[in-house]
Structure formats: structure tokens, C-alpha cells
Amino acid sequence: MSFTFTPLGDQAIMIEAGNEITEEVQQQIRKAAALLEGRPPVWMVESIPAFTTIAVFYNPLAVLYDEAKSALEELLQHASEVPVPEPRIVEIPVCYGGEFGPDLEFVAQHNGLTAEEVVAIHSAGDYAVSMIGFAPGFPFISGMSEKIAAPRRESPRLRIPERTVGIAGIQTGVYPIETPGGWQLIGRTPLRLFRPEQEMPSLLKAGDTIKFRRISEQEYYEWEEHHDAEDS
Amino acid sequence: MLKILKGGMLTSVQDLGRYGFQKYGVIASGAMDPFAHRIANLLVGNHENAATLEISLAGPSIEFEEDAIIALCGGDLSPQLDGKECRMWRTLAVKKGCTLSFGAPKKGCRTYLAAAGGINVPEVMHSKSTYLRAAIGGFQGRALKTGDRVPLNPVDPKRAAALLKAANSGQEWQIPAIRYFNEPVVRIMKGRQFDLFDAQSQERVFSSQFTVGAHSDRMGYRLEGTPLSLNKAEELISEPVAFGSIQVPPDGNPIVLMADRQTTGGYPKIGQVASIDLPLISQLNPGDKIRFKEISLDEAQKRLIAQEQHIRQMKIGIDLKMEEWK
Q1: Does A82 touch chain B (CB under 8 A)?
Q2: What number of other Cβ atoms are within 10 A of residue A186's Cβ?
Q3: Helix (H) or strand (E) holding B292
Q4: For B278, how many CA atoms within 13 A lie in the half-sphere containing its CB?
Q5: Which of A189, B4, B51, B173 is deepest in the core (most CB within 10 A)?
Q6: How many CB pairs under 8 A join A and B?
Q7: Using the beta-carbon criterion (under 8 Å), do A53 and B240 form an inter-chain contact?
Q8: How much is the ipTM here?
């Protein structure tokens, strides 16, 4: 499997591993990302991996398109030798329902389930982080069971608190910062997904495996206090 | 300290942007008109990436609580010092107690205020730019408002003396400013999905005029005109975008992605603005008109390099003047 290269304006190159979101294509992107992180060309400013593509931004004062492209082609020839990075497993504790998850009942009714069953299904699966985007630290997650799929709200909420866990269609996600949005809200995590003060400001990165673990309201508050104490 | 008497429409601290974290969904931010931002810094002896105040359209009112050396570059929003019109694109000396205010916008919509030493705010993720939605960076993660007191970094006294001479020299020296237009022709390269558009749209993007829509801001400029359409409706997979990517959502009205763009986008890109022409868009107001003209990647990079050489020469020129005045 090979990569194709096209310009993204005069300061970036788009590398494409395929035009469908398959496991193989995503693995190619992970390998490319790992190579770029491990052996970054000196002229590289940064890279952004997505589902089937990874953009490499460069400084045109240091390198022009053709040269950058050749260098990347050469670098990525080694992609086949790169082992697929072992996914990190990140556990995300979630307090489901109640004031944190006002739409849990809706999701249950929509699927002919009880709220309890929705929680059991949501917290049972292994989820893969395909990419981070849309908001700082926001994971695009695949792998949710269709049994708990639910349409977006007809009119979006103006304010969704940070760390809220939601469902939209067959996707599930966690809002890292307060934002408006139309997702069905089922719970909240005490974990901060966006941590601007840290060298790696996102709790998650593309390639991670997520496990949601159910916690009680009491555990939620204990966790939050513990973290507040750590932060201050 | 700069005492903010009135915040203005949107006054925020910016540098050249926050890079290296887009892979985590952290947007680049930074000055909308990087050219004006850089020249303003050079004129006061700062590093090009020092933090400036980006002032938009209805400007703020700022009292200087200390003597300062400043420069104002970018769009002409009728800047005044103590009510008297002041010049742009050159070094200015400001006395303690003096007030900087703005009148009616004459040309463009964004001015950069650089002060010798730079605006003193902490770096967040290697940048001083304000990231408004995440409420981080800049001055307390937000736009300036009445009552704020914004600190400046101290300046080396020798440097300050030279700058003061530069500011007070009667010589008619001024940096050759970039020209802004209300109806610019902006050079663009074909976008990654150019071929997905129908023949008419491929032709129209270069032949027709677009009007800057009301919902144009630091995130993106919405253009209105004869709608552009794809050969067939297609759902694309979200992919990374760049400053100046021209996306076309299903309504057919192009959006030019600007400094506060998200890191990825799912709409087809019909074009990509050449970096050298980004300032022309950043200075447009709703109602202004814009046309696009094609430029090759090769040419766009050549022009960018030529502009960088031009800026480097200006920097050398300014440094020489400073030496002279030392």
C-alpha cells in the first residue's frame, strides 16, 4: 500500500493513504505519524493526522514543495517496516445519567432499552480514537454499538459543559471544552481531556483505545476534588 | 502598563500563532494579518513573533501608564494620540498619560499595535495568541475590556534611547506599507478537490465576483456570489485544512478559512489562497468585493520567498537606523 502526495497550499503537503476509512488505511496513517514524530524533517513545522490523510506543514524558506515531497516519499518508504504502534489503553470513568446525562432516558427509549442497558452497552465496548479535531482534545471515536445509536437533537443546546459524554448517530464522544452542540448527553467524566498547561495538552491521541468505566456520583466528585487538588 | 479605557469591538493579544498542537485539535490562532503584525514589531525593535494587540474595526481606547515606543500597522482605523491623528507604519513615541484612540475606519479592518518590549502575557503551549473559544492564551484567554491593565515587557535602555530618536526624528521615513483594497484580486491555487466541481463552477471561481458576507470573522470569511456546485453530491472524509483553504459547503457559498480555523474540515476545497495574499483578505469588511486569480504553486512559493527577502531587508534597514541613532 502506498501514499499519494498533493499540495495543500504553499506551506503544506497532504499525504493520503486511501479514500475510505478502513482499518488498513488508518494503520498506514498511524505508521506515517509515528515516522514523522520519530524522525521529523528539519523543515517540518507540524503535522495533523486525520482519518485517511496526514498533512505536513513546512517552512517554504527552508524547503520547496518538490524537495519536501521527495523527502517525505523516502521517509514513508519505511512505513512497512514500522510496527503498528501498540494502542494505548485509556480508561475514561463516566458518571452516567442524572444531571450529567439528561438525555440518557431518551437514548434508552429511542432504542427500546432501559437506561441501565444503555449504560451497560456503552461501558462494555472497546473504542478506537480515529483522530483528534473539531475542538481541542476532542476525539473522533469509532466502535460504538448501533444498539444505542440516537439522532442528534433537533435544536442544539447552547451550552454543553466540558467533559460531557454524548451520542450522535453511531458516534460517541466527549466534549473537552464548553461548547454548543446537538449531541444526546448521557454522562460526564471527571477527567479533563484538554489540559493546556501540559506538554501533551490532549489526554487522547489518534490510535488510542478507550474504555468507558461506570462510576457513581460520589466517585465522580471524589475524583474531581482529587484532580483539583493536583492542579492547584 | 496599558490601561484599557474601552475594549473596542474585538481587541486581542496575538503573535504569529500556536504551532505544533494542531494534531491535538488546538487551533493555530495568531495574527490575521501576519505581515502587518511583523512589521509593527520590527519598527519597535521587537522579535517578529512578539505579542501585539490585534485591533478590529471599532478600535479601543488605551491609556499609556508609562512612556512607550509603539508602531501601528495594518488597516487604517484612524488612530489618534490624545485626539490628534497619528501616523501608521513608523515608530512613534508615546508619553505617559497619553491616550490612543481610533476614529472611523478608512481602509481595512485590523490594526496591530506593537510596543517596544512586546505585550507581556504568559505563553500557553509556546504561544501568546488568544484562543478565544478555549479561553486560553493572550490576556486571560479573552478579548480586552474596560478596566484591564495590560503589562508591557521592559526595554533595554540603550535600545529605548535609539528607538526614541527614531520616533522623534523629523525625517520622513516610513516603512513602505502593503496596499489594501476594498475590491482585491486575490491569487489562489487550485484546491485538492477542484476537480470534483462542475465545469461551470471551475470557471466561475476565477471569473465572478464574490461579496464578503456578514458572518465573517477570525475563523473564516464567508463569501456570497453565484453558488458553486459539485459534479455530484459527495460526502467527503474530514481532512486537515490550512490558513487560506477555500471550502465550499453544500449551499455553494465559499468560506475562506482564517487564523482561528478548526484543524480539519469536511467540505471540498476549491482553492487555496497564496500565503502572500492572505493579508488582503484579513483586512476585508462585510460588503467588500473579492475576485480570484490563479497562481501556480511554484509562483506562489517564489513570491513568498521574495516577500521574506523584502522583510529581511526592511529589518536590516531598521537595524542600521537604530545603530545610527544609538
Answers
A1: no
A2: 29
A3: strand B289-294
A4: 29
A5: B51
A6: 136
A7: yes
A8: 0.95
Q: Between B26, B189, B237, which is nearest A51 by CB?
A: B237
Domain total for chain B?
A: 2
| Gap between the Cα atoms of A224 and A231, Å rounded | 10
DSSP state of B192: T
Q: What residue numbers bound the domain in which A151 lies?
A: 89-231
State the best of B19, B21, B23 to mutate against chain A, taking most chain A CBs within 10 Å. B23
Closest Cβ opposite residue B25 in set A19, A64, A137: A137
DSSP B137-191: STBTTB---TT-EE-B----HHHHHHHHHHHH--S-----PPP--SS-EEEEEEP
Question: How far is A200 from chain B, CA to nearest CA, in Å?
Answer: 8
Same domain, yes or no, for A103 and A172? yes
Residues B199 and B131 in one domain: no
> Is B304 part of the contact surface with chain A (CB cutoff 8 Å)?
yes
User: For each of chain A's 232 residues, which pLDDT tens digit applies?
Assistant: 689 999 999 999 999 999 898 989 999 999 999 999 999 999 999 999 999 999 999 999 999 999 999 999 999 999 888 887 788 999 999 999 999 999 999 999 999 999 999 999 999 989 999 899 888 999 998 889 999 999 988 888 888 999 999 999 888 999 999 988 889 999 999 999 999 988 899 999 998 999 999 999 999 999 988 876 555 4
Q: Which of B135, B152, B178 is the last residue of a domain?
A: B178
**Nearest-by-CA chain B residue for A202:** B24
Best of A6, A8, A46, A197 to mutate (most B CBs within 10 Å, chain B):
A8
Q: Is there a domain that residue B139 lies in?
A: yes
Domain-embedded: residue B89? yes
**CATH code, domain carrying A55:** 3.30.1360.40
> What's the CA gap between B86 and B93, in Å, rounded?
11
